[in-house]
C-alpha cells in the first residue's frame, strides 16, 4: 500500500506482553501488528529496540519553566518558549501532553506567574493552530482553591478550545500535601526564606485557605461540570478528601499523598495518578506515600512526569526492570491507562486502527534512550 511504513525486528510493547515482531502504519494509522520479522522491501530494522505507544502525559507544569526560567525572568518570545517545551516533551517520548497551567496562587509572590496564564494559553493555541508542535497538546487547568480571586482568574479560560482537564488543588498549610507544616517550612527555607518569614507566610496561607477554599470548590466544580471537562482532585490525603471529590463528580484523584486515600479513591471508582519523579527518586519529596507502595498495593492507575518530563519513561523502566510482563504493564501506566482515563480511544495501544503514535526506545545501563518518535504517523524525532 502506498505510504506504508514497515517497522520490523522490534520488541512490540503490547497490553500485557512484549513480543518480537513487526508493525505497519500508513496515513497516520496503525495497519498491522504481527509477530515475526518482515522481509518487505524498505522495512526499517529497529535492531531489537522496544517499540511502544507514545506516552500520554496528564499533568506537567514544564511549560511554565520555559516562560519563567529563573525567578524574575520572563521569556520575551512566548511561542519560542512553547516550542522549547514541546521539543523537551517529545524527546522524553511524550506524544500527547496535557499542559498543566496554574490558575490562581497562594501567595503574593505568585502574582507574576499568575499573570503569565493568558500568554501561555495563547502560545499553546497558536502552536496548535499553526501545526508547529511535535506532540499533541491539550490544556489542564490547575486551580488553586485557596486563592480568594480564583474564579475571576479562571472564568476567561474555562471555554478555551484546548481545555480538557481541570484539577482542584488546595495547598492550605496543615492539610493534603502540606499536612506536616514542618516539611513546608523546611521547603520554604531551602528556597531562600528566613525561618521567621516562612512562619509568617504559612500563617497567611492558612488564613487565606480557610477563607477561600470552601467557597471556591463548588464554584469551580460547577464551571467545569457544565462544560463536560474531566475534573480531578489533587493531593487527596484522607478518605474524607476522596468522599468530597467523589461527591463533586471528580473522575480522577491525582497524586494521593497516602495509601488510605489511594485505596479510598479506587473503592470510590476514581482513577489514581502517581508522580513518576517519586518512582525515580524512591519516594516523595514532601513526605507523601511512595508510588512504589501504591503499585504493590494495586492502587495506581497512571503515572505523570509532573515536574521532570524525562521521569515518565525512567519510571516505566524502573517499575518494569524485570522485563517481559512487568515492563509491558509499566508502559500501560503511561499509555493505555491514561488514554482510558481521558477517553482517548484512538491511542495508547499498538493495535490496528489506532493512531500511529509510537516511540522507539533502547535500554542502556538501566536508562531508557529515546531513539525515535512518531506522532500520527509523522516522524518528529
Automatic annotation (TrEMBL):
Its EC number is 3.6.1.63. The keyword Transmembrane helix does not apply. Residues 317-361 form the Amidohydrolase domain. Coiled coil: none annotated. InterPro entries: Amidohydro_3, Metal-dep_hydrolase_composite, Metal_Hydrolase, Metallo-dep_Hydrolase, PhnM. The keyword Transmembrane helix does not apply. Keywords: Hydrolase. One of its GO terms (molecular function) is hydrolase activity. PANTHER family: ALPHA-D-RIBOSE 1-METHYLPHOSPHONATE 5-TRIPHOSPHATE DIPHOSPHATASE. This is Alpha-D-ribose 1-methylphosphonate 5-triphosphate diphosphatase. It comes from Chelatococcus sambhunathii. The lineage of its organism: Bacteria, Pseudomonadati, Pseudomonadota, Alphaproteobacteria, Hyphomicrobiales.
Amino acid at each position: 500500500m502506498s505510504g506504508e511504513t514497515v517497522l520490523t525486528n522490534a520488541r512490540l510493547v503490547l497490553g500485557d506482553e512484549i513480543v518480537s515482531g513487526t508493525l505497519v502504519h500508513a496515513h497516520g494509522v496503525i495497519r498491522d501488528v504481527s509477530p515475526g520479522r518482515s522481509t518487505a522491501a524498505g522495512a526499517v530494522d529497529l535492531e531489537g529496540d522496544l517499540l511502544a505507544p507514545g506516552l500520554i502525559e496528564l499533568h506537567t507544569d514544564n511549560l511554565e519553566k520555559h516562560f519563567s526560567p529563573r525567578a524574575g525572568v520572563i521569556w520575551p518570545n512566548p511561542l519560542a518558549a512553547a516550542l522549547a517545551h514541546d521539543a523537551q516533551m517529545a524527546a522524553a517520548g511524550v506524544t500527547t501532553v496535557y499542559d498543566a497551567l496554574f490558575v490562581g496562587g497562594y501567595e503574593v509572590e505568585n502574582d507574576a506567574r499568575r499573570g503569565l496564564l493568558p500568554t501561555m494559553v495563547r502560545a499553546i493555541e497558536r502552536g496548535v493552530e499553526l501545526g508547529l508542535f511535535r506532540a499533541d497538546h491539550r490544556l489542564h487547568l490547575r486551580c488553586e482553591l485557596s486563592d480568594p480571586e480564583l474564579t475571576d482568574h479562571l472564568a476567561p479560560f474555562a471555554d478555551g478550545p484546548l481545555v480538557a482537564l481541570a484539577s482542584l488543588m488546595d495547598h492550605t498549610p496543615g492539610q493534603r500535601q502540606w499536612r506536616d507544616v514542618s516539611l513546608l517550612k523546611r521547603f520554604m527555607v531551602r528556597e531562600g526564606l528566613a525561618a521567621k518569614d516562612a512562619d509568617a507566610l504559612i500563617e497567611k496561607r492558612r488564613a487565606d485557605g480557610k477563607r477561600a477554599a470552601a467557597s471556591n470548590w463548588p464554584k469551580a466544580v460547577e464551571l467545569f461540570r457544565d462544560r463536560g471537562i474531566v475534573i480531578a482532585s489533587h493531593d487527596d490525603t484522607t478518605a474524607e478528601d476522596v468522599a468530597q471529590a467523589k461527591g463533586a463528580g471528580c473522575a480522577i484523584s491525582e497524586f494521593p499523598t497516602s495509601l488510605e486515600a489511594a485505596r479510598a479513591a479506587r473503592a470510590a471508582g476514581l482513577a489514581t495518578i502517581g508522580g513518576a519523579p517519586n518512582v525515580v527518586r524512591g519516594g516523595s519529596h514532601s513526605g507523601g506515600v511512595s508510588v512504589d507502595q501504591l503499585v504493590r498495593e494495586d492502587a495506581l492507575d497512571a503515572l505523570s512526569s509532573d515536574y521532570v518530563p524525562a521521569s515518565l519513561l525512567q519510571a516505566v523502566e524502573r517499575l518494569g526492570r524485570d522485563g517481559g510482563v512487568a515492563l509491558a504493564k509499566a508502559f500501560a501506566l503511561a499509555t493505555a491507562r491514561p488514554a482510558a482515563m481521558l477517553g482517548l480511544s484512538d491511542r495508547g495501544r499498538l493495535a490496528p486502527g489506532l493512531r500511529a503514535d509510537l516511540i522507539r526506545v533502547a535500554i542502556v545501563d538501566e536508562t531508557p534512550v529515546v531513539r525515535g518518535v512518531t506522532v500520527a504517523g509523522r516522524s518528529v524525532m
